[in-house]
Amino acid sequence: MEFLGLLNYWIIVVLMMTGFYIVIAHNNLVKKIVGLNIFQVSVFVFYITMAKVKGGTPPILAEGIEIYSNPLPHVLILTAIVVGVATTALGLALVVRIRDAYGTIEDDEIEAQENEL
Amino acid sequence: MAAHYPALQVVLALLAAPVCLILRRPNAAWAVATVITWISLALALSLLGRVWETGVILYPMGDWAAPWGIEYQIDTVNAFMLVIVTLIGSVVMPFARASVEAEIEEERIYLFYCMYLLNLAGLLGIAITGDVFNLFVFLEISSLSSYVMISLGRDKRALTAAYRYLVMGTIGATFYLIGVGMMYMMTGTLNMADLATILPAVADSRTVMVALGFLTVGLGLKLALFPLHLWLPNAYAYAPSAVTVFLAATGTKVAVYAFIRIFFTVFGGVEIFTAGVIPEILAVLAALAMIGASAVAIYQTDVKRLLAYSSIAQIGYMVLGISMVTVTGLAGTIVHLFNHAIMKGGLFMAMGCILFKIGSVQLDQFEGLGKRMPVTMAAFVAGGFSLIGVPLTVGFVSKWYLVQAALEKGWWLAVAVILVSSLMAVIYIWRVVEVAYFRPPPKGSAEVSEAPLSMLVPLWILIGASYYFGIDATRTLDIAFAAAESLFGGPL
Known about the structure:
Structural class of chain B: mainly alpha
Radius of gyration of chain B: 21 Å
Number of strands of chain A: 0
Order of helices and strands of chain A: HHHHH
CATH topology of chain A: Helix Hairpins
Largest interface: A-B, 30 and 25 residues
Oligomer: heterodimer
CATH class of chain A: Mainly Alpha
Strand content of chain B: under 5%
Largest sheet of chain B: 2 strands, antiparallel
């Protein structure tokens, strides 16, 4: 049952490696940004998972409830999500500019053009 | 009022950034940015003075007591970093005006100043905060704004440089975030001082060791530790000159500071240095950076790129000092943070002046530049001496203490690496000097034309400082040694 108990962590590892692999292996600049997003999301899930307290409810104050999940990681991740959105927006904006300048968003074609300069 | 200086240090620049956005007029934005950076410098100096006299300053943000609230903890190390960042930030401002006008389209200039202030706020935030998650947020503020500033470069390669930096920088920051998460899992706190007291009890767990690994790699990416430096050369080479000066002098330095903070304060109670092989790994990577990056620098034809590779080698020196884990070594690193900031800032400013007049920093364009731009080239040579480590320069001071620290440890190989790397610096500086002074200027070129005074004066302030603090290094060394001792928890 240990595997099931750690299911979230397995998902996190798979997501993280998938995202990381896309960033490294893919040639397309937009796909790289998508990979980066998946990579970041795995970390968000990681924080949310560790905030879970066994038997705890969502951290909303209510009568008759004693155990709450830890709200702090939720708040931290809210910040990290904002940072992630900003990064994605900036990354995509750069891709638009790169396409204007180079006429392509394939990494190897850009590199070939750069080597000619 | 004075009690709130720690908050003002960050908040001023953070609030001034949107003001630049609203003003839109280049000159108004420049004026706002200049005033704010100079006030920040005054704040940083007064904080350093207070820390020097009365010891650590604790400032709970919004009066929420630590460890629940975010607390700013300012000791000698932070205060010194604040001074380095604001000093460079304020010297760059007069320089930036003419340089930015020449290199960035007019309708984007106000955006540059907006990003510049955001970057300043981010870097100051990293240096001042005592909370590991808060550090992540400031790290991202400074990184995001630096991607934008790099992409403002005229060359289209600036765009791809910014994109690559964005991808690698985000991976670095996310790694750092994973590390912070794992530490939080084990300790339930994010406050650095609190972490330092709780971590030793759980240090044997694999989670904490993995956290340390993630933190090391994440910050290693940010500070361009070999072999994680790939983003740096293009980013520095194609960014606008003022951006290169500011980033080269402060960006990686603040990341080195964060690295020191994690290793010596947060993990201060954990025997990470004596038990593992971490010092050896760091020392080997540092040595590879010092030799490898210097070797690559020798073969560069773009002088800005040459200096960028030299920066990677200089980061090697700093990491070497950290890897020794002695007060002398760490003091060498801290004093080199300051020394390298002023000399590399000066050298990149010289590049800015040449770009302003000649429009290119390709080595073949330097022919006869010794005669055509004597003031700028004299500054370049003077800064080059400092990079090599000639006595009476700041470069000599930091190398002297690093060599001494290496001798204390009996690391003869490290001494050899420092000397070889310095000799290689002689070669790459000489290549530029040779072209500039010993080749005739191309026919039909204007005789003498220098960049405007507003660029030359900041250039000579930094170059002059690199001699002033080289001849009389007592002040910087006192601070560096006090900082190193405080990191080891009092005099050893």
